[in-house]
Design a protein that fits this description.
The complex is a heterodimer.
Chain A lengths: L26 H19 L49 E6 L10 E4 L2 E2 L12 H11 L25 E6 L2 E6 L5 E5 L16 E7 L2 E7 L19 E10 L2 E9 L8 E9 L70
Antiparallel strand pairs in A: 1-4, 1-11, 2-3, 2-11, 4-5, 5-6, 7-8, 8-9, 9-10, 10-11
Chain B lengths: L1 H19 L19 E5 L3 H4 L29 H12 L1 H4 L20 E5 L3 E6 L5 E5 L15 E7 L2 E7 L19 E10 L2 E9 L8 E9 L12 H11 L1
Antiparallel strand pairs in B: 1-2, 1-9, 2-3, 3-4, 5-6, 6-7, 7-8, 8-9
Classes of the chains: A mainly beta, B alpha+beta.
Chain lengths: ~350, ~250
């Protein structure tokens, strides 16, 4: 497709992406997090003029990795009022949310428990891989052409929920939807007591069924295919994965979130990730998600050389003479930021 | 004394009326109890429309159909001459040119009558359409009155309101990259679409859509079709991640 830039900026539109301060888990992290909480919320709320979002122009194959991701969980916002409720008394989670367990860059940073015990101090030991699966994850790190998002695939559960740009919860009695600006991805979470779909249907975002236990929404996701990663680092899973999430709103603006991942074909034990989702865009009542046209404007995928698993004969020049491109230009809605090549430098812990 | 009594009676009546007949004040969102209920999973039953919205004979793999056009004498799209020629060219080269063959976003109204179900979810501030076709989503904003300036979208920018029992959606800010069907019927970036969703019985929505595009059509024209509720037990929107399967097919070669 020709790369005629059609993306224009929406004046005054706040960006969906927020900067997360990288924090280690632990007491020091909590203290710093609380102190920084106000500053972070201010950052989140300030409308960012221009495209915002991904730092790399959409056409650049070697842009930086787009997701801010996180180390440890996102700090909770300032104290808010009591949990909002629907007329039937259930928590009302309608609105825009962001944050979560982090772990987008590397899910190890979000793991809190392994096999029911506190997670090992050393992040390298946190994913209880079976040997063959560990080898596959290592291979993925060197084969970034296989990153699912490069191919405009849905991200799967749970990482769909902590992808960049946040998500909207649309909740009615008996049904909940999460909609991400990233990929325009959707998770269907019926809460009407229905059973799972038959087991030989495999979905990118799985089949979720939810029910309330008090104020906690418990969601079980089965029927996952094996084509998604848990993060941008190559940590993957099989189609035997089952995810059990617990969403517990603790006040009007914060949801405590945890997800237990069980996959007997990949892991020797279940492990848990946890964090806090907080309401986003509170200072911008006009905020709306933008359309995300991924496959329509996907330039990155053509820039991967054969050495990196792609098809390009040689790396393209960043800007061949006469082809200067406006940053962030893409066709249709928000272009996809650079997935770049393999991660630079040592993995972030 | 009598005036005061009348005043009291009027006041009491007003209070009573407000309690019994809640109506949204201007600018206030209706509660979901006050909206026409369009929620559920729906699908067009006339499969011929996805191929061609105009009346057409069958061809191999394509069923015949009377089309959906409601308000032109011959039930055909009122193209301007140059646009009519382009349509013929599109048809001849549709295998290469149809954006859906690259798994692109289908645009509006084509997205409504693809061979896939979609779900309507309503809150006080927006109506969300979730289509099984590559998880396309349309948020119809009920609180915004003007279209976004200076942007273009594959599926347009939709703002909506209720008129009695009808959800009226005004969509604009389209790009020129989508078609109306698989036969090359097309539009420009000047396209404006008005949709009207009216539930005429518990399991049927009448869908009317008016297309205006002075660069392509000699006048506005309207399509009308029926949406049927999916009532199979536990029916749900599944996934059609077209580009994933296209890649698989490519790799298998």
């Amino acid at each position: 497709m020709s790369a005629t830039p059609t993306l224009k900026t929406l004046k005054g539109q706040s960006s969906g992406e927020q900067k997360e301060i990288q924090m280690k888990n632990g007491l020091l992290g909590s203290i710093i997090a609380m102190a920084a909480g106000v500053a972070i919320v201010s950052l989140v709320s300030v409308p960012i003029a221009g495209q915002g979002g991904q730092p790399a122009p959409a056409q650049e194959g070697r842009g930086g990795r787009g997701a801010a991701g996180g180390r440890g969980g996102a700090p909770a916002g300032p104290p808010a009022g009591p949990v909002k409720r629907l007329p039937d008394g259930k928590p009302d989670l309608n609105g825009y949310w962001a944050g979560g367990p982090g772990g987008l860059a590397n899910i190890r940073t979000a793991i809190t428990e392994v096999g029911g015990q506190p997670a090992p101090q050393n992040p390298a030991e946190r994913i209880p891989y079976q040997p063959a699966a560990a080898a596959k994850a290592e291979a993925n790190q060197k084969n970034m052409f296989e990153e699912p998002e490069l191919h405009c695939f849905l991200s799967g559960v749970p990482s769909q929920t902590y992808r960049q740009f946040g998500f909207q919860i649309i909740q009615t009695p008996g049904y909940m939807l999460t909609v991400n600006e990233f990929m325009g991805a959707v998770r269907h979470i019926p809460t009407d007591g229905r059973p799972h779909i038959p087991e030989n249907i495999k979905l990118f975002n799985g089949d979720s069924v939810g029910h309330w236990e008090g104020d906690t929404l418990v969601v079980e996701t089965t029927n996952n295919n094996d084509r998604t990663w848990l993060d941008n680092y190559g940590n993957a899973h099989s189609d035997a994965l089952i995810v059990l999430e617990k969403w517990t709103p603790v006040d009007a603006n914060n949801i405590q979130y945890e997800a237990t991942l069980t996959d007997p074909k990949t892991y020797t034990a279940p492990f848990k990730i946890a964090g806090t989702y907080r309401r986003a865009q509170l200072n911008d009542p006009t905020y709306e998600q933008m359309e995300f046209a991924c496959i329509e404007g996907n330039q990155d995928i053509h820039h991967y050389t054969e050495a990196a698993g792609g098809k390009a004969k040689e790396a393209p020049l960043a800007h061949p003479p006469g082809t200067e491109v406006a940053p962030g230009a893409g066709r249709g809605g928000r272009g996809r930021g650079g997935a770049g090549g393999p991660p630079q430098g040592p993995p972030r812990q | 004394m009598r005036d005061r009594l009348l005043l009291l009676i009027f006041a009491a009546a007003a209070i009573a009326a407000a309690a019994v007949l809640p109506t949204p004040t201007a600018g206030q969102a209706r509660s979901t109890a006050q909206m026409p209920d369009l929620q559920g999973i729906w699908q067009v039953s006339d499969t011929s429309l996805a191929y061609n919205v105009e009346p057409h004979t069958a061809t191999y793999g394509v069923p015949a159909g009377q089309g959906a056009i409601a308000d032109t004498p011959n039930k055909m799209i009122p193209y301007l001459p140059a646009a009519a020629a382009r349509r013929q060219d599109n048809f001849k080269n549709r295998a290469a040119l149809d954006p859906i063959n690259q798994c692109f976003k289908p645009g509006v109204p084509r997205i409504t009558y693809l061979h896939f179900p979609f779900q309507i979810i309503q809150t006080p501030t927006q109506v969300t359409f979730v289509y099984e076709y590559i998880h396309n989503t349309r948020n119809i904003y009920l609180n915004r009155k003007e279209h976004l300036d200076g942007l273009d979208f594959w599926n347009g920018d939709s703002i909506g309101r209720y008129e009695g029992n009808t959800l009226v959606v005004d969509a604009a800010d389209f790009n020129d990259q989508t078609w109306l069907d698989a036969s090359g019927n097309h539009h420009s970036e000047a396209l404006k679409v008005q949709e009207r969703y009216t539930r005429t019985d518990p399991n049927t929505i009448t869908y009317e859509v008016t297309l205006t595009d002075p660069k392509v059509y000699s006048r506005p024209w309207k399509m009308s079709m029926l949406l049927y509720r999916h009532r199979e037990p536990n029916f749900r929107i599944l996934e059609y991640e077209c580009h994933a399967y296209a890649e698989d097919a490519e790799r298998a070669k």
